[in-house]
Amino acid sequence: MHPRADTAAEVSRFTQAERWIHRTTAALMGVCVLTAACLYVPQLAELVGRRALVVTLHKWSGLALPLPVLAGLASRAFRADLGHLNRFGPHDRTWLRAALHRDKRQSSRPAAKFNAGQKVYAAWIAGATLVMLATGLMMWFTHLTPLLWRTSATFVHDWLALTIGIVLAGHIGMAVADPEARRGMRTGRVSRDWATRQHSLWRR
Asked: Using one digit for the tens of pLDDT, what is the confidence trace for 74-133?
């Protein structure tokens, strides 16, 4: 096929900067989740050993987790996508109703560059990350807060960590089920046909 035809059949979805932000954040989140599992699951703790090293990795990866996003604010494309994720319109409510009723027809799930599920996930994971960072700091610097605060922080941190693990598993499962979406995050480009079907309101 002619190279120009190949280009016309694809559209740009993510810049290189955006893809690196996603990869770096995913790597740090992966370290946080894996080290947390090693700290709280006895079988994994025995298998890995070196608890002090695991604790150190967990602390510093958690502390570094917001940094890729903060650095990404220098990218105009990333700031624009944050704006898209932060806007919730009537078509998003339609998408959510269809998802709740398990209506998988594309006509029932209108979406712009990001669908309503992606917007809800992004908002939730951003909020959860901030809560985990705050509670983690309370647990780390024990002399800064009263015992009651630290006890509450530990409770919230542990249970929210479990919830994050479940939500991340769902996020990964959705990605595995959509090869074209993965290609968009891997290469920055997706097929025009996929974009038209999955994101009909996206102004490309």
From this structure: 999 999 999 999 999 999 999 999 999 998 888 889 999 999 999 999 999 999 999 999
What are the tokens at 83? 């704006």
pLDDT tens for each residue of 18-76: 999 999 999 999 999 999 999 888 888 777 778 889 899 999 999 999 999 999 999 99
Q: Which of 127, 119, 124 is nearest to 66 (CA)?
A: 127
The position carrying tokens 């996508």 is: 81
| CA-to-CA dists, residue 200 to 64, 76, 97, 196, angstroms | 36, 23, 17, 5
pTM above 0.90, yes or no: no
- Alpha carbons 80 and 76: distance in angstroms, whole number: 6
Tally the residues of the chain.
204
The C-alpha atoms of residue 109 and residue 201 are separated, in whole angstroms, by 10
Burial class, 47, CB count within 10 angstroms (exposed 0-12 / middle 13-18 / buried 19+): exposed
Which run of H or of E encompasses 111? Answer: none
Residues 171, 165: Cα–Cα separation, whole Å:
10
What residues pair up with 12 in beta bridges, in sequence order? 189
Residues 6 or more apart in contact with residue 111 via CB below 8 angstroms? 91, 92, 95, 198, 199, 200, 201, 202
In the chain, the amino acid numbered 133 is L
The encoded tokens of residue 127 equal 């909020």
